[in-house]
Amino acid sequence: MIEKNHPSLSVGAQCRLLSISRSSFYDAPQGETAMNLDLMLLIDKQFLETPFYGVRQMTWHLQNEGHAVNEKRIRRLMRLMRLMPIYQKPDTSKPAKGHKTYPYLLGGLRVERPNQVWCADITYLPMRKGSLYLVAIMDWFTRKVFDGLTRPHWGHGPISPWRISNTLEADFCVEALNEAIHKFGPPEIMNTDQGSQFTSFAWTNRLGHALING
Questions:
Q1: Could you tell me which of 52, 35, 39, 184 has the C-alpha nearest to residue 118?
Q2: Rg, the chain, Cα only
Q3: How does pLDDT run across 130-169, given as a tens digit for each residue?
Q4: In a 3-state reduction of DSSP, which class is residue 75?
Q5: E strands within 143-182?
Q6: Pairing of strands 189-191, 117-126
Q7: Is 194 exposed, middle or buried (0-12, 13-18, 19+ CB in 10 A)?
Q8: Burial, 100: exposed, middle or buried (Cβ in 10 Å; 0-12, 13-18, 19+)?
């Protein structure tokens, strides 16, 4: 909006009319460093695979990949990139009354191979009118949501063990589980929260049946 060569108004006069300081007009914007640009590319690539990663998870991921970063830097870069993770809806992990509580099996466990440990989680997708719920099953070793592209050596053709539902009934979770087991066989350990979907008879019965017959 400011013209350096305005015929009748000086730069100072134009700044006063726009209520900005004259010094700010001459401050050249500082771009991101090459290191931050590289980190932004890595963040963008990982976010496409795991859109539920927030600042903390993204920081852990990059640190595990050997990058010396902290949460403060990653928070700033994700805000700059306008990346908003798909947050879990409150109470999706709330235990159901009467459902069995299962022990945590990953304490001190070294995950060394695919199919050793799977995990599943439900995330909340806010929509313009109402909301949807997405369940995804992930291999803990590769840290990737199953699909035919990330695990081509395990079979041919695409697979998408995730489902979207407009309710929190267990059916859509079991459908995703069925597809993952059908494609890759059962896991040795399935790690989830104690939400009603994952402690339901439909879910636990399907897992038990797969382990016995797998």
A1: 184
A2: 24
A3: 678 889 898 888 776 554 333 433 333 334 578 888 888 8
A4: helix
A5: 144-145, 162-165
A6: parallel
A7: middle
A8: exposed
